[in-house]
Amino acid sequence: MPGRAHTSAHIVKLWIDVSFVVAFAGFCLLALWLALSPMIMAGPNSRGDVAIPVAIGSRSIRPVVAVQEAGPASGEVANPRIVDGRGELRFETNSWSLQFFPNLVRVFGFGVVLYLLYLVRGILRSALAGRPFAVDCIARIRIIGLSLIALGFAIPFIEYSVASNVLARLDLAGLAIAPPFDIRQETVFAGLLVLVLASIFGYGARLESDQSLTI
Amino acid sequence: MSIYVNLDLMLVKRRMQLTELAHRVGITLANLSILKTNKARAIRFSTLDALCRELGCQPGDLLEYRDQRTGTQNIS
Predict the structure, then answer these.
(1) Domain boundaries, chain A
(2) Per-residue pLDDT of chain A (215 residues; tens, 9 = 90+)
(3) C-alpha torsion sign, points A167, A169, A170, A171
(4) How many whole angstroms separate alpha carbon A121 and alpha carbon A115?
(5) Does any CB of chain B come closer than 8 Å to the CB of residue A207?
(6) How far is B47 from chain A (nearest CA, A)?
(7) Among A93, A153, B56, B58, which one has the highest count of C-beta atoms within 10 angstroms of its own C-beta?
C-alpha cells in the first residue's frame, strides 16, 4: 500500500476503532438497562424513556397534514400542506412493557452497527496487512452488502410494528401521528454498491491468485 | 489443467536436487515446488529460460500436454 494511502487507512481504522468502542459501550449500557428494567421499573416513581419514529399525519406512507394560512386567504397560495413529515415521539413511562420493545429495537440496532463495524475493522486489518484481496475480506464485504440490503427492507417493518404497537396504547391529541413505513432506498442502494465492490474485489482476488501461482 | 511440468523427470535425468536447482535458477524452493506439483497457473518465459539453461533441455522436455479425458498424450 502506498505511503499516503497507508496513512489514510490508519486514520480510518482509528476512527472505526473509536466508533466501535463507543457503539459497544452504548450497546452494553442499553442491554444492561433492558435486562434490569423489570427490577428498576418496579419502583413506584421510576420511569423509562421511550422514543419511536412517527409520521406526521394520518397515513403511514406519504402522510399529508393541511396547514391553515394565518389571517384572510391572500389568493396567492392555495391548499398549503406538509407532505411526508417525519419525527420522533419521545416520552417517559412507568410501564415496563411500553418501553421494552422500542428499547429492544435500539439494542438490536446497536448490535447490527457493532457487527458491521467489526466487519469493516476486519477489512481494514487485512488491507493494512497487505492482503486486501484475501478470501475472508471479500466474504466480509459481501456480508456487509447483503446486511445493508436486508436492513433496508427489514427496518421499515420493525419500525412500523413497534410504533403501531406503542401508538395503539397511547391516547394522544393535538396532532395526527401514524406509524411510519419507509423503505430505506439509500440503504438498499448502498448495499447494492457494496455488493458491486465485493464482486470487483473477487476479481482482484482471482488476479492475485493467478499472479501468485505464476512462477 | 492439461499441461504438466515434468520437472521431477528432468531432475532425475540430470541427477540434481530440487534445492540445488532452486539455488541455480534463483527462485524459491516453494515456487519450484508449486511448479513440480503442477499447481502453477502460468510460467514466465524468464523462468522457463533459466530452467532450460540449468537443466540443459528444451521447453518441450519440461512441458507436456495430456488429454484429461484419456489421460494420455494427444499429439496430432
Answers:
(1) 3-47+95-170+183-212
(2) 666 777 888 888 899 999 899 989 989 998 998 888 888 877 777 888 889 999 998 888 888 888 887 777 677 788 888 898 889 999 988 888 888 889 898 889 889 989 999 999 999 888 888 888 888 899 999 999 999 999 999 989 999 999 999 999 888 887 888 899 888 899 999 999 999 999 999 999 889 888 888 88
(3) positive
(4) 10
(5) no
(6) 7
(7) A93
Nearest to A157 by CA among A206, A195, A108: A108
Find all residues with CB under 8 Å of A139, minimum gap 6, and list them: none
Place of cell 401521528: A177
Task: Please count the CA atoms within 13 angstroms of the CA of B63 that sit on its side-chain side.
Answer: 18
Going A112 to A118 to A124 to A127, the CA torsion angle's sign is: negative
B36: Cβ–Cβ under 8 A, 6 or more apart, which residues? Answer: B5, B7, B8, B18
Question: Are the C-beta atoms of residues A138 and A114 closer than 8 Å to each other?
Answer: no
**Class assignment of domain B3-65?**
mainly alpha
- Provide the edge-to-edge strand list for the sheet that holds A85-93: A85-93, A48-56, A177-178
What are the residues of chain B with a beta carbon less than 8 Å away from any beta carbon of chain A? Answer: 27, 31-32, 34-35, 39-44, 47
User: Which chain B residues are within 8 Å of A215, Cβ to Cβ?
Assistant: 27, 31-32, 34-35, 40, 42-44, 47
Kindly give the pairing relationship between strand A81-83 and strand A85-93.
unpaired
Question: Hey, how many other C-beta atoms are within 10 angstroms of the C-beta on A75?
Answer: 6
